[in-house]
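User: Show me a protein chain along with its predicted structure.
Assistant: Here is one chain, sequence first, then structure tokens.
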Amino acid sequence: MKEGVIGILGGMGPEATLDLFQKVIKNTKAVRDQDHLRVLIDNNPKIPDRTPAILGSGENPVPMMIETAKNLERAGADFIVIPCVSAHYFINQLGEGIAIPVISIIEEVAGEIERRLPGIKRTGLIATTGTIRAGLFQDRLRGIGVEVLVPPPKDQENLVMSAIYGESGIKAGFTSGENKGKILKASNALIKKGAQGIIGGCTEVPLVLQQSDIEAPFFDSLDILALAAIRLARSGTH
């Protein structure tokens, strides 16, 4: 059976792209180089920011996303994964522009929640304002009876967005100390409100927050996406 070639549409942001690649490698059962999967990466940080685009104040990222995905398609990728949650707001438009499938991080996280926490009533979401406003996780999880709790506007701005986008934020390469504390504080506040799990709904979040940091189950969106990519590549059906 021929293994599939994973295409990573990266650069949104570069550290999350690196993290996804590392997670594909670490989660692949291998004893020698040749046991690993072939992975193609186009790390294109020039793609316009997704959050302003979703909120109606920024440039449309879709044309450059399609152009980048086509590079991967031409290079031999059998399917695309995107280490950026907010980019999934545009997943249908992206899919229309290319001939190979795009694996949805939203679908994979929802599936993992159903498997790990059957009967869960509510989960917390730590994500960019664009992802929250787009309702990506809310719409999908509502379908399986799960309410999604999000930080109040003040916490969303001063803790989550500050940690991700601030001058000394995660996107600027600061993945410890203050930013970890901010994400942890926002997560714990949601757990106190009744969240039975926390979704790392921005691919920068797992760069600072791990399961050992919080008491509730943590859903690392990048780890879940990496496992899905491995399963699909190994299955030979793409």
